Amino acid sequence: EVILAAVREALSTDDAVLVVHGTDTLTVTGEHLYGHLTALEKPVVLSGAMRPYEFRNTDAYQNITEALLACRLLSAGIYVVMHNQALKFPGIIKDRTRMTFTRR
């Protein structure tokens, strides 16, 4: 609910919203936002890292760069942006085997 309130507030003034989120529950938040934010006119992008920022081989830098670009390019909707893909909610799952997100 805290994230939903923050996103609603940001949508009232900003061109897009970027939510940096832990990947274990990112899809839960994405589905919650999708269910409560109707008639969106701007993109809401969720992103994170499968390998933590502190690790040498982190994907955090790439993912945040892609997410920032996606905020400028995507149409209205709720997305997860990571690993060279932008997936629109609903129906996104974390694929722990492949260490990425995919569609159900």
Any overview of this molecule?
This protein is of the alpha/beta class. Helix content is 34%, strand content 26%. A 4-stranded mixed β-sheet has the order 1-2-3-4, with helices on both faces. A two-stranded antiparallel sheet has the order 5-6. It is globular and about 35 Å long.
Shape summary: globular
Radius of gyration: 13 Å
Summarize the amount of helix as a percent range: 25-40%
Low-confidence stretches: none
End-to-end gap: 25 Å
Q: What is the count of DSSP helices, taking H or I runs of 4+ residues?
A: 3
Topology (SSEs and partners):
Layout lengths: L1 H10 L5 E4 L5 H11 L6 E5 L12 H14 L3 E6 L2 E4 L3 E4 L4 E4 L1
Parallel strand pairs: 1-2, 2-3
Antiparallel strand pairs: 3-4, 5-6
Task: Give short descriptive properties of this protein.
104 residues; alpha/beta; 4-stranded mixed β-sheet; two-stranded antiparallel ribbon; 6 strands
Please give a quick description of this structure.
The chain has 104 residues and is of the alpha/beta class. Helix content is 34%, strand content 26%.
